[in-house]
Structures are given as structure tokens and as C-alpha cells.
Write a structure and sequence with these properties.
Length: 256
């Protein structure tokens, strides 16, 4: 396990180390500096692309979480055969190659653009991201329903809760960890996506992965190493906080 983790994380550690390198060399560490981090925040192209990426990721993940939660609640109430069929259909965007999804969505948007007089841009990009984010939200929430007592909802209503009140006071707290996990996964996939974004974003704006890809045709600046290091640290911090919060909630429930 240690060797596997070492194999997975050595490239990231190398990237972090060379984000502090004085020179642009990717093989020789010449000295320690914060200059690339300072230059990063003065690079208008990278900052604009990062802002675009965050806007798309937040919008897509929030909408995907709402839709995925509603879909998971509906799927949970289905009978066995319809539930199996719907879940199999939900899994298709996950196992389907991204290139197929990207091209098919592009063709769909171009078809409607020619008839409704609009261009590919942020709206089409957000819709595309929601398309592949929703299945991940559903897959994170469904196990919570399987772990939950199926009679809690009826019991809450027997004790005087209205259907809406029973959902918000009983069901929602039970599935909330799955909702948070689904949101984080959707946000991560949206932040990271390149293939689908490349085919659906249009020519007026760029996301960070597309900007980085355009840089690889020349030479990737160490500013990208600095940005990647910041993103990695933020993601790890969020995951640590999430795990600590879940453990505390588990301990509190165990005490009760």
C-alpha cells in the first residue's frame, strides 16, 4: 500500500517542489523562491480562466446536486425492476467515454443553436457539466438510503410531522453526508474536466484545463505548477475537514 501511494503521489510532490524553483527548469532545482506564486496572481489569462472554471464548477455542481438529490429520492421510491433499469441508465454517462459525450453534446447544442439563434458559451458548458455530474451525485446518495431505516419517514409523520417537515427534519439529515460527498465529487469533476469542456465551451471564453492545454504547445510556465499546488492544498484541506466533521457526527450519534 505504501508503494502504491508513493507511486500515485510522487508526481504531485515533484510538481510542488518545482513550483518553488528559481528557474524554469523541470529537472534541476536551482533554488527556492515564491516568485512564481507572485507572478501567478498577476497573470491575467490564468486568473480569468480560473475564475471561469470556478464559476462553471460551482454553478454546475450546485444544480447537479439539487437534481441528483431529487432523482435519488424518486429512484429510492421505485419498485425493484424500474429502479434497476433507471440505475443502469444513470451509470451510462459514467462508463461512457468522455469523447463520445463531448461530441454528442456539441452536436446537440449546434443543432439547437442553428434553430434558436444562440452560441456555445457558459450556458452550454454548465448544461454539459450538469449532464455528467448528476450521476455521481445519485451514486453518492443512494447508499445512504440503503443504510437508512425505510420506516423513518412514516414514523415521523405518525409523530405529527407534515410530509415536508418529515423530509427536512428526518430524511435530509440522514442523506446529508451523501449530498455533501456528491457535491464535492461533482465540483471536482467540473473543475478538472477538459474533453467535454473543449467541445462545448465555444470560442468566447476558456476554462483552466483548456488554457493549460494551449500552453503545452509551447512550454508550460512554472506558474501552472504554483496554481496546481494551491488547488491540491485546497482540495486536501476540504477533504480533511469533511472527514473530521463526519467522524464527529458519527461519534455524537454513537453517544446518543
Amino acid at each position: 500500500m505504501a508503494l502504491i501511494l508513493l507511486f500515485l503521489y510522487i508526481p504531485i510532490f515533484v510538481l510542488i517542489v518545482f513550483s518553488f524553483n528559481v528557474t524554469k527548469s523541470r529537472s534541476v532545482f536551482s533554488g527556492f523562491t515564491f516568485d512564481w506564486y507572485i507572478k501567478l496572481f498577476h497573470n491575467k489569462l490564468i486568473m480569468t480562466s480560473l475564475l471561469n472554471t470556478i464559476i462553471v464548477a460551482v454553478a454546475a455542481s450546485v444544480l447537479a446536486t439539487v437534481l441528483g438529490t431529487a432523482a435519488a429520492i424518486g429512484i429510492n421510491k421505485m419498485k425493484k425492476l424500474p429502479k434497476t433499469l433507471v440505475m443502469q441508465g444513470t451509470n451510462i454517462p459514467i462508463v461512457n467515454p468522455e469523447i463520445v459525450m463531448g461530441v454528442s453534446l456539441m452536436l446537440l447544442f449546434v443543432f439547437f443553436a442553428a434553430r434558436m439563434n444562440f452560441e456555445l458559451g457558459f450556458v452550454t458548458l454548465i448544461i454539459a457539466h450538469i449532464t455528467f455530474d448528476v450521476p455521481y451525485v445519485i451514486l453518492n446518495i443512494m447508499p445512504r438510503f440503503r443504510q437508512m431505516n425505510p420506516h423513518l419517514y412514516e414514523a415521523a409523520q405518525d409523530l405529527g410531522c407534515s410530509p415536508i417537515s418529515a423530509f427536512f427534519k428526518v430524511i435530509l439529515p440522514e442523506i446529508l453526508p451523501g449530498i455533501i460527498s456528491g457535491f464535492l465529487m461533482a465540483f471536482t469533476f467540473s473543475l478538472d474536466d477538459f474533453v467535454v469542456s473543449y467541445f462545448t465551451i465555444g470560442a468566447t471564453s476558456q476554462t483552466l484545463p483548456i488554457t493549460i492545454y494551449s500552453m503545452t504547445r509551447r512550454k508550460v510556465s512554472p506558474e501552472i505548477n504554483a496554481l496546481s499546488t494551491i488547488i491540491f492544498v485546497v482540495v486536501v484541506t476540504v477533504l480533511v475537514i469533511k472527514n473530521i466533521a463526519e467522524r464527529r457526527n458519527s461519534v455524537k450519534r454513537g453517544v446518543r
